[in-house]
Amino acid sequence: MDSQTVRKKFLEKVIYYCSYRNNVRRLAHALETHSFKLFPDDYTERSEGGPTNLDTKLARQAGGGPFEPYSVSLVNRAAVQLIGNPATILEAGCGTGMFASFVADRNKTVQITASEFDEKTLAWARAHRSAPNISYRRLAFEECSTDQFDLVVALEVIEHLSDFAGFLKGCSRVAPRAIISTPNKSRDPLSSIANTPAYGEHTREWTAGEFFWVLRCFYDNVELYTLPGFRNQVSRYTADSGFVPTVRKCSVLEREEPLIAKCGSPRRT
Q1: Staple partner for 168: which of 42, 72, 218, 233, CB 3.0–4.6 Å?
Q2: What is the extent of the structural domain holding 148?
Q3: pTM as predicted
């Protein structure tokens, strides 16, 4: 081994053992490992709670609050930035039609099929968020042909479903691309170790890494995105309805609150 190689290996070891960054990570990992031992490990999924929270939205509005939570509205606006230029979109679990109306207002030519299984919610969407290029329907994946749409979108839906695998299989069949969002289980210290999600309508929640690899079972290409400084962005949006959210690509280690995945090249068997 020549002197140059010896010097290189020595420097690598110095960096490995003495690097500030590496030692901060070692300390954080040790504290995290210790903290996990302080909490019970008994993760339990909830039973699926149903297709809608329309009554909650109406009650909040009647009390002087926003019909849609500002945080959810911001995620929907962010997702619009990631759709590209599809000619046809299927929104699965459209709820009260927020995303569909955002897209329809931005692009008058794209044809949006917004599917919702709750008839009361569907009626509200038709009455309050109609547009010439939106078709509100109760449409199941089984009724769709393969690649019937250019893009399928499911925002804040998958965490409510018991059969998430069946749902993703349906998404991957009806369109070659998908936009799927969910909350990040690692968004704060206690949510990250919660045995069951705090929000009563969620069946389960995932970390960024868990979400990524679940999606990779159904798509060869998965890119994760988030809204940096999410709470600050929500505050700005609350004060200014014209605020355009900032979206950035993120890794499987992301701890910011929302996760939005762009999926392509579906795996079909």
Answers
A1: 218
A2: 51-264
A3: 0.93
